[in-house]
Design goal:
GO terms for molecular function: ATP binding; phosphorelay sensor kinase activity. It is found in: Cell membrane. Keywords: ATP-binding, Cell membrane, Kinase, Membrane, Nucleotide-binding, Phosphoprotein, Transferase, Transmembrane, Transmembrane helix, Two-component regulatory system. This is histidine kinase. The protein has 525 residues and is an alpha+beta fold. It folds into 3 domains: 222 residues, PAS domain (Beta-Lactamase); 88 residues, PAS domain (Beta-Lactamase, 2-Layer Sandwich); 207 residues, Histidine kinase-like ATPase, C-terminal domain (Heat Shock Protein 90). The chain is 49% helix and 20% strand. The protein is built from 13 helices and 14 strands. It has a 5-stranded antiparallel sheet, sandwiched between helices. It has a 5-stranded mixed sheet with strand order 10-11-12-14-13. Strands 1-4-3-2 form a 4-stranded antiparallel sheet. Strand 3 and strand 4 form a beta hairpin. Helix 11 runs parallel beside helix 12 and helix 12 packs antiparallel against helix 13. The longest helix has 48 residues. The two termini are 53 Å apart. 28% of the residues are buried.
């Protein structure tokens, strides 16, 4: 298959392509998650800092001691120790208390006391902002201080971005560890999935898989043989066009159904449930099928069975006609052999001078052989049936079984016009064979064959003086039924199939032996 590969197509198998794609997807998802987590942590840290600086600034602004000190002659002496103490107890990097004009009374760096505050101030309302001051970028809050409804100063406190970044770095370490763990876990799971896909696709590339499916589909629809795939639970997982035609099923409705639920002969349903079958013949309403079943396993797992069906209907019909011709040839051979024996007898009688006895013997034997031939040819005008009767009579005669025609045997050729010679050969030949088999072990074995035209068609009757058939005839024409041991029983099943196909009926009876009576319509139903 490698020579069909596109030289410009990727050389990677489907499993490898999916593995790389999944790794990229996992990496993108993990990195995107980490970025979102970082953004969220930064936002929450900033919000927490803003809330904290507002709380500290408001707490100081609301203290009466701070307002009194701002109204006093030396605010720095009172407020600097207080501001530094509160700054040490909180996360604040600076606490600045100033005049309404922004002149500092307190600062972490005493050298900056008395200088103007760097940042935005609004004596009428609270401000919260991120601003770059003397200590660098910081999140700060500025709150006005009132005494007796008069603005006496401002309180500003803030947390530098440097401190916030340090806290974020600690969170980032945990975040990176979590992201790395997620990436490793995702990679491991992706590798396991890739190994499973590689095992199921046999390392093939997408183009090869697609091409294989196209070949597979084309072959399934092209072959005339039937193909069924049956799962271990007995459900049909695949039914090609050939199987649908041979079994008279709809392939679109069959798949997914259990074999036992299909409209098939019971013997075939039973066979499809087995694990292994080789060249077993089965009959449907209008076909003779050769069935083979093989189990399917992969990596020690049971995948079910593969069922192949081949149509042997035409072959079976031709085989019946060939048997008829072979029987006719056997009849001629037998007659030639008997004629040679009779001729030797006649010659010997003449040499002994017993001429009259020789003439009488020759004419008697000739009359006996000719009488049977004349009776068959006169009663049955259809040459194939006549040849079949003569051949079966000769074969039975060599086995010591007498085959005779019924006295009322007479078939009008017009009555056979609508009946196929193949089906007639199948019916008559198998009934005679079955009767001959039945009488081989009885004294004075005899089989009587009757063919007669009736008002509504043709009657075929085969009677023997054998042991008869057991009570109940429901199973007689099912594949496999036989009074003999071994792999027998197909003949009567073929008889039943041909009779049903011609729209006729078959009955079984008899007291001293078996009598099979087939009634066929003059016009095919």
């Amino acid at each position: 298959m490698s020579r069909y590969r596109n030289r410009f197509a990727p050389r990677w198998s489907l499993a490898r392509q999916l593995f790389v794609l999944q790794i990229v997807v996992v990496a993108v998802v993990v990195l995107a998650g980490a970025a979102l987590a970082w953004y969220d942590a930064d936002r929450r840290t900033t919000e927490a800092a803003r809330g904290e600086v507002v709380a500290v600034a408001r707490t100081l602004a609301d203290q009466p001691a701070v307002a009194d000190a701002l109204a006093g002659p030396d605010p720095t002496a009172t407020l600097q120790p207080l501001a530094e103490r509160i700054r040490a107890d909180t996360r604040a990097d600076f606490i600045t208390i100033m005049s309404p004009q922004g002149i500092r009374y307190t600062h972490p760096d005493p050298s900056r006391i008395g200088k103007p505050f760097r940042g935005n101030i609004d004596p009428t309302r609270m401000l919260v902002e991120t601003y770059t001051g003397t200590l660098g970028p910081s999140v700060r809050a500025v709150v006005p201080v009132y005494r007796d409804s008069r603005l006496v100063g401002l309180v500003a406190d803030g947390i530098t971005v440097r401190v916030l970044t340090h806290e974020l770095r600690r969170q980032l370490t945990a975040l990176l560890l979590a992201a790395g763990g997620a990436l490793l876990l995702g990679g491991a799971l992706t590798y396991l999935v890739n190994a499973r896909i590689r095992r199921h696709t046999h390392g093939m590339r997408p183009a090869e898989l697609s091409r294989m499916y196209e070949y597979h589909d084309a072959i399934l629809h092209a072959v005339r043989e039937g193909l069924l795939l049956v799962a271990p639970d007995g459900r049909v997982t695949l039914c090609n066009d050939g199987a649908a035609v041979l079994l008279s099923l709809d392939s679109t409705e069959v798949e997914g159904e259990r074999v036992s639920a299909l409209d098939l002969p019971p013997s075939l349903v039973e066979t499809l449930g087995r694990r292994a079958v080789r060249d077993e013949v089965h009959l449907t309403d209008d076909r003779v099928l050769l069935v083979n079943i093989s189990p399917v396993r992969s990596d020690g797992r049971d995948l079910g069975t593969v069922v192949t069906l081949r149509d042997h209907t035409e072959l079976q019909a031709l085989s019946g006609e060939l048997d008829s011709m072979r029987g006719f040839a056997e009849s001629l051979r037998s007659q030639a052999h008997e004629s040679a024996n009779r001729l030797h007898t006649v010659v010997s009688l003449i040499e002994l001078g017993r001429t009259e006895e020789a003439v009488g013997f020759a004419t008697a034997e000739l009359d006996l052989a000719q009488r049977l031939t004349d009776q068959v040819v006169g009663a049955v005008g259809e040459p194939v049936l006549a040849a079949l009767l003569l051949g079966k009579s000769a074969e039975a005669g060599e086995r010591g079984v007498e085959v005779v025609l019924g006295e009322d045997t007479e078939v009008d050729d017009a009555a056979l016009e609508h009946l196929g010679s193949r089906d007639l050969v199948t019916i008559l030949g198998n009934l005679i064979d079955n009767a001959v088999e039945a009488v081989t072990d009885v004294p004075n074995p005899r089989v009587e064959v009757t063919l007669r035209s009736t008002s509504d068609g043709v009657l075929i009757r085969v009677a023997d003086n054998g042991p008869g058939v057991p009570a109940g005839t429901g199973e007689l024409f099912r594949r496999g039924w036989s009074t003999k041991s071994g792999d027998r029983g197909l003949g009567l099943a073929l008889v039943g199939q041909s009779v049903r196909r011609l729209g006729g009926t078959v009955d079984v009876g008899g007291e001293d032996g078996a009598v099979f009576t087939v009634r066929l319509p003059g016009v095919a139903r």
